[in-house]
Design brief:
A hairpin with a 2-residue loop joins strand 5 and strand 6. The chain contains one helix and nine strands; from the N terminus they run αβββββββββ. By secondary structure, it is mainly beta. About 16% of the residues have low confidence.
Amino acid sequence: VYRNALLILIGAALLLAPVVSAQQVDLDQTIIVVPGDSSKSMGFAPRAYDTITQGETDYFTKSVSSGTSQLTLDLNWGTPSNSLTLWVNTPVGLYGPYYDSSDGIPSNGRIALVMSGSGGSLPAGTWEFRVYGDSVSGVEDYTFVAY
């Protein structure tokens, strides 16, 4: 008796459950990262001015609009004896770590990168940037900009 009642309840639940359709997600969207031109001026792009110590992580976010073709990143601390690391968390995945030499210029206290979407535009949404004090003596001043 209990078994039949249980089967009836399961059958009724299946009939009453809403039908959920699969949503297609573009997992093939990748981001291309290339060295940026650290000699270029950033113009009037808003910069974050901050300080960091050994083992500290600072977080920044940026809203990337639909149709944005590229994003230029510039993390500049100017003291090559200290080492900062940059991570970029996008709507399609985590990119990094990026180090001082990731932009093709070793030991200049700067990481300059350009990120672009493989399909012509970057994934829209909130991007998070993490600056990590990998090897810092004392307190290091730095600027970060994503434009």
